[in-house]
Write a structure and sequence with these properties.
9 helices; mainly alpha; about 0% strand; about 70% helix
């Protein structure tokens, strides 16, 4: 189910972070993800698996731990450039070998480095008026994400619209419409 993360977020932030700093939980998730194969549990990302909960925890908790640092100001170039270089080198290696990493925690660490590097670059870009709708969608993405599948299901089942760009544009407009979202699921 595409809403699997709601229970995960509740578990992560509703239960775990009340007493433990999110940075420690992020570190623990990297250790746990790495240890799972040593304990006889194969990694798998399909379906409702406990290892998926452990894998994604690092991203949620590292984000929560890094937020105060990242909102203070731009990530220094001394962090941004090496983070992007490591992530790019890893991506090239992964594309060339087309194989799973031998050390599972590398995936988590490299993705985190990529995100920190990307944030460092994006923090320095000018805020353009034309990108304000994209900023709005980023800040409010949870509602369109939760609403998009039911909207597509309802419109797909109860309309004779042909598949194509026009239908996609309609789905997108209905799903991301602030007034539609606020009326159907966010309250008044």
């Amino acid at each position: 189910m595409y809403t699997w993360f709601l229970a995960t977020l509740f578990s992560y932030f509703g239960l775990l972070t009340r007493r433990i700093h999110p940075g420690w939980i992020a570190l623990a998730s990297v250790v746990a993800w790495t240890a799972l194969p040593l304990l006889g549990s194969a990694h798998g990302m399909v379906g409702p698996r406990p290892d998926k909960f452990v894998f994604y925890a690092v991203f949620f908790f590292a984000g929560a731990a890094l937020r105060p640092v990242l909102t203070r100001g731009p990530v220094p170039w001394a962090v941004t450039v090496p983070a992007l270089a490591v992530a790019a080198a890893w991506a090239l290696h992964a594309a060339r070998t087309d194989a799973e990493p031998q050390v599972p925690m590398l995936t988590q660490v490299v993705v985190l480095l990529a995100v920190v590097g990307e944030v460092g670059v994006l923090q320095r870009l000018p805020r353009l008026r034309a990108l304000r709708p994209v900023e709005w969608l980023g800040r409010n993405s949870i509602v369109p994400y939760l609403v998009h599948l039911p909207v597509i299901e309802l419109l797909g089942r109860h309309s004779d619209l042909p598949a194509g760009p026009g239908t996609f544009a309609l789905y997108y407009a209905v799903t991301t419409s602030p007034s539609a979202c606020s009326r159907c699921c966010c309250g008044p």
